[in-house]
Amino acid sequence: MGPLWLLALIAGLSFFGFVLGHWKSVVLSGKGRDALAARPGYYGAYVLIWTAIPALLILVVLSVARPFLVEHTVRVNLPEQVLANPTQLSLEISGVRQVATGLKLATHEELEDIRIGVVAARSVFARHGLPLGEDVKPYQLIAASALNVVSDGLNTAVDIAVVAALAFGLIFAFVRVKPRLRARNLVESTILAILIGASSVAILTTVGIVLSLLFQALQFFSVVSPINFYFGTVWDPRFAAAGSTESGQFGFLPLFWGTIYISFFAMLVAVPIGLFSAVYMAEYATSKVRSIAKPLIEILAGVPTIVYGFFALTTVGPLIRDFIALPLGLGTSGNNVLTAGLVMGIMIIPYVSSLSDDIITAVPRSLRDGSLALGATRSETMRQVILPAALPGVVGAVLLAVSRAIGETMIVVLAAGVAARASLNPFEEMTTITVKIVNQLTGDLEFTSPQTLVAFALGITLFVITLGLNVLALTIVRKYREQYE
Amino acid sequence: MTEAASRLPVSRLGGPEVRAISRIDIGLRRRYAAERRFRAYGLAAVTIALCFLLALFGSIVGKGYTAFQQTRIAMMVDFDASIIAPDGDRSPAAVLSGNAFRFDDLIAASLQKTLELDPDDEDGLYDGLDLLSKGSAPMLRSMIAKDPSLIGTKRSVDFYATGDVDSFVKGTIRADIPESQRLIKDKHIALIDKLEKDGALHLAFNTGLFTNGASTRPEMAGVGVALVGSLYMMLVVLVLSLPLGVAGSIYLEEFAPKNRWTDLIEVNINNLAAVPSIVYGLLGLAVFINFAHLPRSASLVGGLVLTLTTLPTIIIATRAALKAVPPSIREAGLGVGASKMQTVFHHVLPLAMPGVLTGTIIGLAHALGETAPLLMIGMKAFIVEYPTTPLDPATALPTQIYMWATEPERAFTERTSAAIIVLLAFLLAMNSLAIILRRAFERRW
């Protein structure tokens, strides 16, 4: 049975269990001996939980363990000289997997023919619509048939285990349904456990990000030393031919400079516009203007970044090239730092403005009123009383915006260019960390080559930088909020 | 603003009684000027932001609205049985196999008739064929395979013009630039004019844009397949992130004791909401594809990755909605003897549901536009066929936009903008739905 059938079986039997539990509790209480300790639905749910959860757990555990067991079988059955070459191992294993699929397609007579060597396995598989890249080697056949035996065995084992768990759970819980049973407490504590599990998905995600990135990044650092990576000034990861030892140069600094430079321009656009519009919204705008302009500005945050990227690529880039860069003789490319920075700045305006707006309105009214009562104008109140009081919060908002700019991908992929260079001319092509992650990971992937793995090293660096900025920003904002609460 | 200005004693500044304190006057005037400047800066900032918004939408709509119409060339086609089914076998399988060039012969014959060409005029024929999409012959073939009874009849068929002809007819390729730099030559223009005069060449609503899949030929390319991929992903996201998000937030908001662990989760969720989406893509690549061996480019994997990116948004929205339910509801529930769990599930959650749904829809809208993580897991693929299950190779609307955005042809630029308009229309619809839901069910206590 496939996993879908098993899931359907679990669902069906659980429902059946619910009905049984409900029915039994009603019948027992109907005899009038004891009042039920919980409402009948809870007895149904009690049986349901006992039926479904052990079976589901078994299914999940076995499904997770399965790939390891299968891969282990293949490894055991591969000859020494194949195992000796770890870089080819994953290729070999997927080759064996394909042969195993082919063996399943072939008929009994054909299998017999393949076994005694009358026909080539490759031609048989091709007849069944499975073309292979090269002829099947004898050791692959052995490993593949072992794989099939183990995976068939595992299938049966999973089926039996799940059905056994279902039957046991159903009967056990059904027998235990008695009026005295505190079904509600048991059901509620199970639900609580599920709730706790759901809330720790967030933790699991973070752990998953860190572990998966770190694991691949460490593999990269075993080929390229971290010092060469973080302090290298040349980015030139040649996609070397297979087997070649040359790996190119992976200098992080030009990417970092590009990222910082583009973010700088983005902030140059976003901070003044965002801050001033927040001030205007909080202090001067009538409620009517505010109710129209504020959602309109926030639309800017809801537009997908790919749309900004396209806007930069087809509208802003050519404009800047034709009207500024070319007449001044500073650059010839429509892909440049200024374009990416400007468009990214537009995207970030609402982040700065709405956060700052919240922070400005959170400054206690007494401060404002005091200042106005002393005869200060509104702008003086804003500049000399409210903004200084709100400064930590505003700094936090700006830091959050910087972190968003650094992690932004689609705008720079489309508008910043791919040339890794560190220069001060904003009309030149430059590239960022995120662009290089995308570049290194599109196309054929080999999880053993440094050209692919470098993306994970870049990823974890990006993660650490943005995480640092976020933690800093959130701490500042939180401190600031507490100050006035 | 006028109300505030009129209250200022500016009008009295010149009066005789104020002259005595003229030193203060000067200071005041300067301060009021500063006030006006400051206010003007604010107004300018808001205006600039709104201008950016206008420029963004204006440029996209201006480039893309033409793509919803497409140039077609209507021609009478004689589905000659001796050409299509020379051996008399009219089954779809026989139509699909066999000499593929026989459909080109059909097209050539009807083109000669439409353009009233001399049968020996080969150059004229080839110039005419240049106007038609290279996908015309496959189109005829699948048409006949779908309905074999067409064989032996005569019918008018709307053929697609090539992307360049389409751009020319819509005016994006201009006739006044020198012929050597123009993609459409003078001889083609003559033919186009003739076809237009005969009424054969016309603009029609571009249905292919919504039904076709990826194609190297702009006139045959559409977002249909990408839309299905996006739909599958949204389903996966909805099915996973709504229950997970709601369950997680209920625990954090209603049950969690205040301790280090819950603090950690809290900080974590806030941080996850700000992690760059590309990092989620790397996570998906490493865990779902490299480790769990799920297929690349599958919408299931895309949905899983997007679930992780949207989960923090949904949790934050749900917690806000739960927090907004007043404590008196909980106290009343507990007071009449309900357990804590019953109070939450029977009373608090239903009251918070509008907020939860609004948050979920906004989270989904965000996920729909997400591009970078999908590039990481290989959803940037050339997919022609509709995916039938979430495990089939698929592509998504934003990745389709990304692929088209990097194509150099003018016709693709137009289509990219059109695809963006489609995407924005979906986002607009989802956000409006969220706003309507909030308006309809929102309660203020």
UniProtKB/TrEMBL annotation, chain A:
The chain crosses the membrane at residues 6-23, 43-65, 157-177, 189-215, 260-284, 296-320, 340-364, 385-406, 453-477. Residues 256-473 form the ABC transmembrane type-1 domain. Gene3D superfamilies: MetI-like (1.10.3720.10). Coiled coil: none annotated. One of its GO terms (cellular component) is plasma membrane. It comes from the Bacteria. One of its GO terms (molecular function) is phosphate transmembrane transporter activity. Keywords: Cell inner membrane, Cell membrane, Membrane, Phosphate transport, Transmembrane, Transmembrane helix, Transport. It is found in: Cell inner membrane; Cell membrane. It is a multi-pass membrane protein. GO terms for biological process: phosphate ion transport. Part of the binding-protein-dependent transport system for phosphate; probably responsible for the translocation of the substrate across the membrane. Belongs to the binding-protein-dependent transport system permease family. CysTW subfamily. PANTHER family: PHOSPHATE TRANSPORT SYSTEM PERMEASE, PHOSPHATE TRANSPORT SYSTEM PERMEASE PROTEIN. NCBIfam families: phosphate_pstC (TIGR02138). This is Phosphate transport system permease protein. It comes from Pleomorphomonas carboxyditropha.
Automatic annotation (TrEMBL), chain B:
Its main location: membrane. One of its GO terms (biological process) is phosphate ion transmembrane transport. It is found in: Cell inner membrane; Cell membrane. Pfam families: BPD_transp_1, DUF3333. One of its GO terms (molecular function) is phosphate transmembrane transporter activity. It is a multi-pass membrane protein. GO terms for cellular component: plasma membrane. Keywords: Cell membrane, Membrane, Transmembrane, Transmembrane helix, Transport. Residues 227-434 form the ABC transmembrane type-1 domain. The chain crosses the membrane at residues 38-61, 231-252, 272-294, 300-322, 348-369, 418-437. Belongs to the binding-protein-dependent transport system permease family. CysTW subfamily. PANTHER family: PHOSPHATE TRANSPORT SYSTEM PERMEASE PROTEIN PSTA (PTHR43470:SF5), PHOSPHATE TRANSPORT SYSTEM PERMEASE PROTEIN PSTA-RELATED (PTHR43470). This is Phosphate transport system permease protein PstA. It comes from Pleomorphomonas carboxyditropha.
